[in-house]
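COURSE: Structural Biology Practicum
ASSIGNMENT: Worksheet 4, Part C
STUDENT ID: 0417
INSTRUCTIONS: Below are two proteins. For each, the amino acid sequence is given first, followed by its structure token string. Answer the questions at the end about the second protein only.

PROTEIN I
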Amino acid sequence: MKIKIVGLFVCMLLITTILPITALAGDEENPEITDVTGEWFYEDPSTPEMLYTTIKITNPRVIPFKQHLVVSWQMSGEHYASMLGIGYSLTQWLAYVSVVGRGSFGDPKPVVSFIEGSFDTTKGTITCIIPKSTIGSDQYSIAVF
């Protein structure tokens, strides 16, 4: 019985020292958390049917999987978002999507559309190119934001 208790105690010590290591979020020089330094909307006069959203981050990386970098806004009571999802699928590591709706409990399921985008790791910017028709209206003007 004494051997079982000592074995259980040693096992508990090993588990309690190993588990916190998996939850560390990097260090000062290599943080796992990315800071957002800015986000903005704009239109390009040559493509009036598109809305562009850009997010600027301090530490752009594509290696940590299951990242989602989101610009969200609300207009006329509806929730919208554009997002770059990183590492959710091996076949499409970088996935740009637009979302209409929140998906909160009691709300209808949000409408998700795959869109085009770009990720500039040197500048730390992620730009999503959203067809205005996927977010409810192609009559939006940037002035309403």
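PROTEIN II
(use this one for the questions)
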Amino acid sequence: MRLEKLLAVVGDSKTRTFSNLYLEGSIDNLDLRKVTLENIRFGHIEFTRCEVDETTRVVACDFEGKLLVDNSCVGFERLSLQGGTLSPQARSIFQSFEVPGLDRRVTAQHVKDAVTYALKRFQRGEGLKTSKEIGVRGSTKNEYGFGDKIIDGLIKYGVLERFRVSSGYNLRVKEKADVYEFLNNSYLRGRLSSAVKELVDDLAD
């Protein structure tokens, strides 16, 4: 079996464990039941045609990039996630599967990170650009499950401005000085500071 060969070469066949590896790219067509992934750093990673269940243990692993799980995979909602760190997008994917062991709390830092991510969609060199609303919402929601609420809040509190164009709606930064200061120096002021405070109050657990 392909998995057994991989365990023999880069893992531990006796304990059925892969550990202390850096993985990036595609993990394809593997039966990962009764397998432990431990202390693994994942870059951008995609699982396709893989089978996992509650005997698949993901222990103290760091998901640093994007995580993709193809519809051909089976059992991701059952895997055992224990410790480790998750990129915002990876957290969102695991949340969508309602994986046991996942800390689902939204923290103030998660909210601030989401605001940063959303506002960076408007950066262009040293300036700020107008962006299509559907694109900003889509990318922010892909990274953060509550991304829609971040965009709504930034519009509500006057940081972003929404306006109609022939193809739908665009967004532009209304409070440019505040956004410049935040993106360049991580300093919150003005309407942006108020918006982040309100969003933290609304979204953080």
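ANSWER KEY EXCERPT:
Q1: The domain at 108-203 is CATH 1.10.10 (Arc Repressor Mutant, subunit A).
Q2: The longest strand covers residues 41-48.
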